[in-house]
Amino acid sequence: MTHNIKIRESFAKAVYLGIKTFEVRKNDRGYQKGDTVKFTVLYDSDGCEMIDHPLSKIEYKITYVLSGWGIEDGYVVFGIKRADEDGLKHYDDGSSEP
Description:
The protein is mainly beta. 8% of the residues lie in helices and 40% in strands.
């Protein structure tokens, strides 16, 4: 499953640079390991207007999902990595190959 989620510009930079490799989110989408995440980057100033950011062109894979264990009920923390870092070629139709 692919999740299209919004992210503020200040967090987007950290994800893009590989410094922030996790997301804390309300689990209203049923996030699962192996799912794909695509980000829409929003300005920090208003949190509404989309901006053209290189992060918006990259797909990420969810590598781990944590709930419970001190995480507020209804929320999850999930690990992410760039989808193109798993050694597979990914195609627009969702298929992949080594």
